[in-house]
């Protein structure tokens, strides 16, 4: 069981979450070319090692998370909310706490 | 073997006699016995038959590595095949029998296989049974499959019950700071150390008693009791009869707790077993070591077993396993056992392969040095052992000793299985002749003999050290070893030119010759060796044989053992019942059942239910004597004539709220939502990123910044996740909040010419829902009689004047109690999925059958809903050339040419006389249309209706009914202008 | 090399098995090969065999970083079937099945292809119609053994399934392919290796590719743990490692994501189940058969997250056991003996790639999803054809990397561009 430290709920089994996909993809604007969309939708680095990826805490807070995880060892290096505003708010809260 | 129960000694309770059955005979044992010890005490020696040659096999060990005494326990639905008798606690009424033998294990006709064993070398089946070369290309497997039938019958071991297992199994979850696996000297000390330091410790032991090797040593009993007491007092949580069968990511362990397997009449409220998922901060593996055998001729005979197991039978179970005993060894570990057996009255000779054996020869024991076992004599009962002496690089026959029990110790293999599950590669230690646990960066620490530490004191110390390390404290690592005289590796003894049956893997009948044949044929890596010979693939997973096999391969190659490789162990450590893993989520409870708020109401009013994903939805409401076909046709006709009510609560409902809600919907749907007025609904299609249709549904604008979006039942969860993802990962700047309100609302569709009348009669204050006040696609908030607040939208899936009415889930039944009497009085009906299907097929409305994930919006005939004024999800990739082809299959309606005929969903549409190939299209759904009076269907065909005007088409259904001539028509088969629904 | 036959087994039985020799050589790498195939798995070995046997290519090496057949070859659940129905897949897998039917004879190696039937259970009238569409296509395209069975027929053939009308998903019928079945996976690897070796192919084990040397838009050599090997043509057939090699070759992204798929085997039992049975509904996915040794071999879903770790986690073990018990409740006291996992390259539409690449002499065999084992013979056959002729055979022209740009997704499940959903 991979244990994921959800920033909102605490550490939980990975079975509460669902894996999204490559978190490094920058989806193009809706009016971008089909070539740009092709690359975003179909092409992957498929990294063996630490990759940025998205997970959804579907059986928890339903927040999407960005996680740095080693795809070979499953070791998790970082977890943050996928929503940049929430991520910023959380980190400033943590700083304030310290 | 002439084993007998001693009058005193052992841990068994002689005051509690236990009757049990073996192959139909009633025998007696005592509380504290295992099935193996009780059978041994009763003088039963042949307990099993081997896999391939059906050789007689007896007890070979006293533990999980058992490869001889593998039996079937229980009867009928509770029959469990392949039970290791050494691991089965005895209980009153236990019924066990031999397996893989006919008529029984003592006399087995299958033993005839042994006569042909010279032809059954490793992998022989890859070289023959291929049958004759085929006379026709593509028919080459016929003869093999005839041979295969015979092979399958001969293979296998026990026979599984054909009945469902009547017992229950539980899943449980646990957490701890430290998990300690094994309760021997190392494990108990590790648990105690950590618990005293305030850690939450979970100690698991596969045995029914704590103590490990202490249990086989009467002199250590007080020490054991003190330790166990201290461990309990320190607050360690203790689980006996519990095996840690696997280690997984992030400190997770899988445990199997056997709750009632030892009970004669279990409490019916208890599960038979529990499967635990435990998340541990750190893990100490004090899993011990297993004694190896040595390969020599007939080393599998009943009466040959590991040396340490004799100690267990003697000291723990009070069974003297033999009278004249020879112990063949290459290490120090047997001398204590030899002394104890001699003390118990046996005549004991140790044949020690080493020239300089242990410094002290125990009293009453004869020691022959430089001797190794060459060939066991006797078939079902051991009569003696031929010994050999090394002569240069070979062996020569030395002497024969008579014996009724031969104990063998070829060295010890630390149990490194669990750390190996984590990818820690075991490391060969040439000095101790064993694999030691490999390195891991995870907080997993081996202690005791599982780390190759042989003396008890050092094991105890290593347990303390491991616990300290697990707590992040400094501690010395204890070196492996500890014997006075080092082990001299010995794996096989054979004369150069003598045929022998020297087994490496007892269960699978893999011999030393098989290993050499594998080498001769190039299967030299350990993985090839295992696969080619099946070494280590039996129910003990190589616990007894793997190291010997590896050593023999190394010798054949002239390499060192590490150069041949190491085997990676896979979970489970010992086999786990499939039902324990499945727990209670089986049969009716296999997957959750979703019920709408109107579920019980529907059942009360005669609904027959059908599966819709995880939902049960009303299929049809049969009146007395009606078949399903009669019921749905009546229901559909009634909707078009008067009014019908259908539960649509399972549709997904998402509240989309916030200043940017309209913009969000505008991006998600192909059509525009920005200008949708408050109080109006709009049908929308959403695409996936790749431009294929994802889902459809209506969205209701309840306020300037508030929408209610409905989805199909099947895609409700997926769409909700998708909205979350888009808002949180792609468009975080949009100020929108989405929440699933699917379960908060009960919803019905009220359809038919009298739908307005029905609803109006149920309104509390007589709100105006006339065509002017609530036109097609209008949305309003209304109040039903009894003060039930409701949302109403004039939406039609049936093509009739129709409304969807949503009330809070708790008021669902109250709503039905209002609506239904009113509708019934107007001649209306309740209708289910089948009639819903009829109505929508008549209208050419699509569902999941048509939107199967491979369909574009144009294919579905809804291309005009794709905005050209704004981009949306999927708008870029839907422009790819293959998706724009004119000859893509497009949605059409289908009539049988002869209107009296019917056809099937799933039929292929093709030109008459074209029985091959992919055809031109297919039929997605069919129904008998009461409006048209004949069967109709929806489907897709290349180019759509226009391409097939006046062309004959066949609905081809070769797997079922054959061919029906059909006509391709517009999918809008009833009321194509939509007059009825706008009226 | 000794020809395998009943006679040779008999003769060697009498003479102490002395007559058998290595099933393939263990040669030293040569400095140059006309074709270097990276990956000594089933597809790589099959490709080498057909290149030599069908196209007469002489100077071929297969490079394997470990031991041949040590990856997915030995980790799959050995199911062979051709019930794919999308154009392209349909012809490809049917051709594969035909090659399977004659493979033991072709290779003179008993791969134990047992055509014991593949039975997909159906649970609703809609599911029966959907299956009928697919199996009607099979019938129309050279697979007369595709059938839709009613409940009575199914009960006669497979008596021990859970036919209770109160089970969560009562069984209503089945879609059956009778020529489908199972084969002995290791034997396929060894048979192709022996066959390739007989044609002079050098199988280089413990030979890990560590670098790809390019000259402009072509590959000139591969750097291996056993030295530099120059190559006329290079072919990748490295399921689970495709993206790593692709990066090594200096190429960009691929429409592939690597996932892990677990597999399970029980203790050996006397015959209990004669067919391959597949069960998929309510989000579950499960398949089971009984090996000739007697073990129940089964599997289910991916672990659902991308992974290069060849080990699984407990949630899927549990899910799979739940499905097993729900469909075969008599397995209750049968014990799981071993579970393991393999790496599968999941593609964006669930269909593989057998194609040329941006480099002129580099060829790609990848993205087999769940289908790699059954595809082995055809994969080798067409890949060899592609390499030998430097152009895709008409039958594989849509298995290229550009198909998504064209808008072609060969999507059997209609799951869309999310690799994990194509299991």
Automatic annotation (TrEMBL), chain A:
Domain of life, per lineage: Bacteria
One family name in Pfam for this protein: SoxD
InterPro entries: SoxD (IPR006279), SoxD_sf (IPR038561)
Protein name (database record): Sarcosine oxidase subunit delta
Species of origin: Roseibium sediminicola
UniProtKB/TrEMBL annotation, chain B:
A UniProt-annotated Pfam family: GCV_T
Keyword Oxidoreductase attached: yes
Keywords carried by this UniProt record: Oxidoreductase
Domain SoxA A3: 500-582
Source domain of life: Bacteria
Domain GCVT N-terminal per the UniProt entry, residue ranges: 598-870
Span of domain FAD/NAD(P)-binding: 177-421
Keyword rRNA-binding among record annotations: no
Family that this chain belongs to: Belongs to the GcvT family.
Protein name in the entry: Sarcosine oxidase subunit alpha family protein
UniProtKB/TrEMBL annotation, chain C:
Keyword Flavoprotein: yes
Keywords assigned by UniProt, alphabetized: Cytoplasm, FAD, Flavoprotein, FMN, Nucleotide-binding, Oxidoreductase
Localization: Cytoplasm
Reactions accelerated catalytically: sarcosine + O2 + H2O = formaldehyde + glycine + H2O2; sarcosine + (6S)-5,6,7,8-tetrahydrofolate + O2 = (6R)-5,10-methylene-5,6,7,8-tetrahydrofolate + glycine + H2O2
Pfam families registered for this protein in UniProt: DAO
CC cofactor: FMN; FAD
InterPro entries: FAD-dep_OxRdtase (IPR006076), FAD/NAD-bd_sf (IPR036188), Rhodanese-like_dom (IPR001763), SoxB (IPR006278)
This enzyme's EC code(s): 1.5.3.24
Domain Rhodanese: 35-79
SUPFAM superfamilies: FAD-linked reductases, C-terminal domain, FAD/NAD(P)-binding domain
Family designation: Belongs to the SoxB family.
PANTHER family: FAD-DEPENDENT OXIDOREDUCTASE DOMAIN-CONTAINING PROTEIN 1, SARCOSINE DEHYDROGENASE-RELATED
Protein name as annotated: Sarcosine oxidase subunit beta
Lineage: Bacteria, Pseudomonadati, Pseudomonadota, Alphaproteobacteria, Hyphomicrobiales
């Amino acid at each position: 069981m991979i244990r994921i430290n959800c920033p909102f709920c605490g550490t939980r089994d990975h079975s509460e979450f669902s894996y999204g996909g490559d978190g490094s993809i920058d989806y193009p604007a809706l009016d971008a070319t089909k070539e740009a969309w092709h690359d975003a939708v179909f092409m992957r680095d498929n990294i063996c090692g630490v990759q940025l990826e998205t997970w959804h805490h579907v059986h928890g807070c339903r927040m999407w998370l960005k996680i740095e995880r080693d795809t070979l060892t499953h070791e998790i290096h970082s977890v943050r909310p996928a929503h940049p505003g929430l991520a910023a708010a959380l980190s400033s809260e943590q700083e304030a706490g310290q | 073997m002439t084993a007998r129960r001693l009058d005193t000694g052992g841990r068994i309770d002689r005051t509690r006699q236990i009757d049990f059955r073996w192959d139909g005979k009633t025998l007696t044992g005592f509380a504290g016995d295992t099935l193996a010890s009780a059978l041994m005490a009763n003088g039963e020696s042949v307990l099993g038959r081997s896999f391939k040659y059906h050789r007689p096999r007896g007890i070979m060990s006293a533990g999980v590595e058992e490869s001889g005494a593998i039996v079937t326990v229980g009867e009928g639905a509770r029959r469990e095949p392949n039970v290791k008798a050494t691991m089965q606690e005895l209980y009153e009424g236990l019924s066990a029998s031999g397996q893989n033998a006919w008529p029984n294990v003592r006399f087995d006709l299958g033993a005839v296989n042994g006569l042909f064993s010279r032809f059954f070398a490793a992998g022989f089946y890859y070289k023959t049974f291929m049958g004759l070369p085929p006379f026709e290309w593509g028919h080459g497997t016929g003869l093999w499959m005839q041979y295969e039938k015979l092979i399958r019958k001969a293979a296998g071991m026990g026979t599984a019950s054909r009945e469902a297992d009547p017992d229950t199994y539980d899943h449980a979850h646990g957490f701890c700071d430290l998990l300690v696996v094994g309760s021997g000297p190392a494990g108990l000390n590790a648990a105690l150390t950590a618990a005293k330091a305030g850690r939450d410790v979970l100690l698991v032991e596969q045995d029914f008693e704590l103590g490990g090797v202490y249990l086989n040593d009467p002199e250590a009993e007080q020490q054991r009791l003190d330790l166990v007491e201290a461990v309990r007092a320190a607050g360690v949580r203790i689980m006996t009869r519990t095996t840690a069968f696997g280690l997984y990511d992030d400190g997770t362990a899988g445990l199997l707790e056997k709750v009632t397997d030892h009970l004669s009449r279990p409490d019916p409220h208890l599960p038979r077993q529990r499967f635990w998922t435990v998340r541990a901060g750190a893990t100490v593996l004090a899993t011990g070591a297993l004694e190896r055998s040595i390969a020599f001729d007939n080393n599998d005979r009943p009466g040959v077993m590991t040396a340490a197991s004799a100690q267990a039978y003697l000291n723990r179970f009070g069974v003297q396993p033999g009278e004249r005993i020879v112990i063949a060894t290459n290490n120090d570990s047997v001398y204590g056992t030899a002394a104890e057996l001699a003390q118990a009255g046996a005549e004991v000779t140790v044949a020690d392969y080493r020239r300089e054996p242990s410094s002290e020869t125990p009293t009453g024991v004869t020691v022959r040095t430089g001797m190794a076992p060459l060939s066991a004599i006797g078939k079902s009962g051991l009569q003696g052992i031929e010994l050999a002496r090394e002569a240069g690089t070979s062996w020569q026959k030395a002497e024969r000793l008579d014996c009724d029990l031969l104990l063998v110790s070829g060295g010890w293999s630390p149990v490194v299985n669990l750390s190996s599950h984590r990818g820690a590669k075991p490391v060969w230690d040439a000095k101790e002749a064993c694999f030691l646990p490999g390195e891991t960066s995870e907080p997993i620490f081996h202690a005791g003999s599982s780390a190759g530490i042989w003396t008890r004191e050092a094991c105890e110390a290593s347990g303390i050290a491991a616990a300290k390390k697990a707590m992040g404290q400094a501690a010395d690592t204890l070196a492996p070893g500890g014997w006075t005289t080092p082990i001299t590796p010995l794996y096989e003894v054979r004369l150069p030119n003598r045929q022998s049956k020297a087994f490496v893997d007892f269960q699978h009948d893999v011999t030393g010759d098989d290993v050499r044949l594998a080498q001769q044929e190039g299967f030299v890596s350990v993985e090839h060796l295992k696969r080619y010979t099946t070494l280590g693939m039996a129910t003990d997973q190589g616990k007894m044989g793997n190291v010997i096999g590896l050593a023999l391969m190394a010798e054949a190659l002239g390499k060192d053992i590490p150069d041949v490789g190491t085997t990676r162990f896979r979970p489970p450590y010992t086999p786990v019942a499939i039902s324990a893993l499945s727990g209670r989520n089986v049969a009716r409870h296999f997957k959750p059942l979703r019920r709408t708020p109107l579920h019980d109401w529907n059942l009360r009013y005669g609904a027959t239910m059908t599966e819709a994903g995880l939902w049960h939805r009303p299929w049809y409401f049969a009146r007395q004597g009606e078949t399903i076909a009669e019921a749905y046709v009546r229901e559909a006709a009634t909707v078009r004539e008067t009014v019908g009510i259908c539960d649509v609560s399972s549709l997904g409902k998402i509240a989309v709220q916030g200043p940017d809600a309209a913009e969000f919907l505008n991006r998600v749907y192909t059509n525009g939502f920005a200008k949708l007025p408050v109080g109006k609904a709009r049908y929308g299609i959403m695409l996936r990123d790749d431009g294929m249709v994802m889902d459809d549904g209506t969205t209701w604008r309840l306020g300037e910044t508030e929408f209610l979006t409905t989805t199909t039942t099947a895609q409700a969860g997926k769409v909700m996740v998708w909205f979350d993802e888009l808002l949180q990962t792609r468009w975080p700047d949009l100020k929108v909040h989405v929440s699933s309100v699917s379960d908060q609302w009960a919803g019905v569709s009220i359809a038919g010419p009298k739908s307005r009348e029905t609803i109006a009669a149920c309104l509390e204050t007589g709100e105006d829902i006339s065509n002017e006040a609530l036109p097609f696609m209008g949305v309003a908030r209304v109040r039903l009689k009894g003060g039930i607040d409701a949302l109403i939208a004039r939406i039609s899936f049936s093509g009739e004047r129709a409304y969807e009415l949503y009330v809070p889930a708790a008021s669902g039944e109250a709503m039905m109690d209002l609506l239904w009497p009113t509708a019934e009085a107007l001649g209306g009906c309740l209708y289910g999925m089948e009639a819903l299907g009829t109505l929508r097929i008549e209208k050419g409305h699509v569902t999941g059958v048509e939107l199967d994930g491979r369909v574009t919006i144009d294919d579905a005939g809804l291309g005009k809903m794709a905005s050209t004024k704004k981009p949306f999800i999927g708008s870029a990739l839907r422009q790819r050339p293959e998706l724009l082809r004119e000859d893509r299959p497009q949605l059409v309606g289908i009539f049988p040419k002869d209107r009296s005929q019917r056809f099937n969903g799933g039929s292929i549409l093709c030109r008459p006389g074209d029985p091959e190939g992919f055809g031109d299209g297919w039929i997605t759904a069919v129904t008998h249309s009461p409006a048209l009076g004949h069967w109709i269907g929806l489907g897709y065909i290349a180019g759509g209706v226009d391409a097939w005007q006046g062309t004959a088409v066949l609905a081809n259904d070769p797997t079922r009914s054959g061919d029906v001539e059909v006509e391709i028509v517009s999918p809008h088969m009833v009321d194509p202008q939509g007059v009825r629904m706008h009226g | 090399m000794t020809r395998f036959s009943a006679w040779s087994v008999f003769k060697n039985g009498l003479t102490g098995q002395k007559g058998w020799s290595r099933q393939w050589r263990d040669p030293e790498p040569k400095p140059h090969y006309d074709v270097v195939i990276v990956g000594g798995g089933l597809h790589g070995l099959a490709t080498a065999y057909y290149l030599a046997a069908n196209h007469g290519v002489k100077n071929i090496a297969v490079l394997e970083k470990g031991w041949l057949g040590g990856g997915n070859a030995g980790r799959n659940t050995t199911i062979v079937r051709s019930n794919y129905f999308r154009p392209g897949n349909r012809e490809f897998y049917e051709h594969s099945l035909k090659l399977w039917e004659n493979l033991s004879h072709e290779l003179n190696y008993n791969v134990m292809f047992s055509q014991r039937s593949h039975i997909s259970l159906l649970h609703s009238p809609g599911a029966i119609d959907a299956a009928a569409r697919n199996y009607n296509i099979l019938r129309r395209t050279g697979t007369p053994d595709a059938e839709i069975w009613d409940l009575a027929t199914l009960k006669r053939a497979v008596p021990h399934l859970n036919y209770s009308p109160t089970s969560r998903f009562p069984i209503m019928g089945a879609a059956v392919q009778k020529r489908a079945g199972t084969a002995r996976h290791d034997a396929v690897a060894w048979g192709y290796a022996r066959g390739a070796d007989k044609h002079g192919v050098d199988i280089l084990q413990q030979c890990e590719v560590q670098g790809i040397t390019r000259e402009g838009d072509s590959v000139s050599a591969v750097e291996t743990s056993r030295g530099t090997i120059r190559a006329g043509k290079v072919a990748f057939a490295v399921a689970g490692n495709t993206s790593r090699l692709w990066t090594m070759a200096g190429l960009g992204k691929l429409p592939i994501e690597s996932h892990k798929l677990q597999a399970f085997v029980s203790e050996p039992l006397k015959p209990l189940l004669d067919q391959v049975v597949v069960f998929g509904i309510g989000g579950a996915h499960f398949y089971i058969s009984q090996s000739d040794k007697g073990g129940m071999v089964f599997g289910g879903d991916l672990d659902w997250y991308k992974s290069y770790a060849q080990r699984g986690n407990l949630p899927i073990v549990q899910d799979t056991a739940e499905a097993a018990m729900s469909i075969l409740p008599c397995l209750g006291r049968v014990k799981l003996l071993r579970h393991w996992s393999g790496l599968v390259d999941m593609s964006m539409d669930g269909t593989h790639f057998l194609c040329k690449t941006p480099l002129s002499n580099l060829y790609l065999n990848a993205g087999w999803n769940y289908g790699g084992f059954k595809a082995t013979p055809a994969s080798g056959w067409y890949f060899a054809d592609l390499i030998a002729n430097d152009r895709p055979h008409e039958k594989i022209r849509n298995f290229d990397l550009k198909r998504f740009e064209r808008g072609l997704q060969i999507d059997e499940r209609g799951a869309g561009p999310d690799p994990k959903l194509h299991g």
